[in-house]
Amino acid sequence: MWLFYALLSGLLFTGEILITRHVLRSGKDAWAYSFYFSFIGAVISLPFMLVDPTIPRSISAWLLALVVGLLIVGNNLLAFKSNNILEVSLSGAINKFRLVWVFAFSILILGTPFSWMKLAGTILTVAAGIIIIHRFKRPQSNTGVVYALGSTVFIAAIIILYKYLLKSFNAPSMTFFATFLIPTIINFSTMPNSVERIKKIYKLDGKMVIIACALGAFANLALNKSLSLGEATSVLVISEVFLILTLVGEHVFLKEKEQVWIKFAAVILATSGAILIRISS
Q1: How would you class 35 by CB atoms within 10 Å of its CB: exposed for 0-12, middle for 13-18, buried for 19 or more?
Q2: How confident is the model at residue 235 (pLDDT cuts 50, 70, 90)?
Q3: pTM, full prediction
Q4: Which residue, of 73, 140, 260, 280, has the fewest CB within 10 Å?
Q5: How many CB atoms lie within 10 A of CB 90?
Q6: Helix, strand, coil fractions of the chain, as percent rounded to 5
Q7: Contact 99, 121 (CB under 8 A)
């Protein structure tokens, strides 16, 4: 059953990523979009949390959840801003760098043993990033790469902190509170002219925004369900290979066909590196 949920998660994430690029590539407000992503995620994950709520009484647990929420807001803003500029296959390949940072942080912070297989995966992932930076030297493309790389540092820190957060929350409660609800509040309260911007992006492309964000929410829930039923490494390896399907969707549906073979090479390198890092975990 874990395989069904892992495949479902991969398909949902692929759909969410492609629709997000469709919405944001015309320069729409990434900050307002980030609000919808968190808000819709909170609405959808609320019933799942209420089935088996875990509400910690420790102040330190809530402070850590607040820190994670802040990091998620930063990650979402950078990731969605990169979608304003970069094709999803390129931002997806760069996104694999999060595993490089997790590898480094795990050794430095958690004391995880060194692994040659992880190092090999890291080298492949870095090679994919070098191809992207070298071959796609278009106006603003460097800015998109910086946004995408910045996002990977945030998400790596989030993954590390999730290990501590799950000692106080179960997965549905953590998903609702830390992944969605707290970022919704932070996003809304820190965004200048938030009400006007939220209304504007809804008027421009409300239906597609809601569909993409709902797909993202259900994808997170499916992934958590798969992780609860199966071995984590197997589940996550399956999720990595869907970047190839994303490239196909980008080519067919978004009609973004520039240097397709270079993109394919970067995707293969990044995916292979991610799989090596996952297998050795």
Answers
A1: buried
A2: low
A3: 0.85
A4: 140
A5: 32
A6: 85, 0, 15
A7: yes
